[in-house]
Amino acid sequence: MKKVLVLVNSLAGAALLTLVIATLTLLYLMFSSDDGDVRRETFFGALMFESRDAADGSTSVTMGVENPLPLVLLFVVLAIMLTVIQLTYRALKQYRQQLLEQQGGA
User: Fold this and answer.
1) What are phi and psi for residue 51, nearest 5 degrees?
2) SS3 state at 1
3) Following DSSP, what letter does each residue of 50-71 receive, concatenated?
4) Residue 49 CA: distances (Å) to CA of 1, 73, 105
5) Which of 26, 74, 82, 94 is 20 to 30 Å apart from 66, CA to CA?
6) pLDDT over 90 (residue 75)
């Protein structure tokens, strides 16, 4: 049961971190573009931002996912890292408890 909880926590954390990274990357693209017609891609071609000036003076903005593979790879790497961190923490916590029990029993 605890291993399932570790896996669920890791997947949820990886999904949240992936969304935060994608959002911050898109915001950076939006606010760092020049005036006029701009099309920019970032995060290894995964995310796209495009703005166009219309004849009536308005601006058309499009943003989205061009290639989901880098985002999926980021999610997998983050999920593995978070799982390893949680399992290492639990193992160290258990080892500490064993040391405290040995010290108290001696």
Assistant:
1) -135, 140
2) coil
3) EEEE-TTS-EEEEEEES--HHH
4) 43, 21, 64
5) 82
6) yes
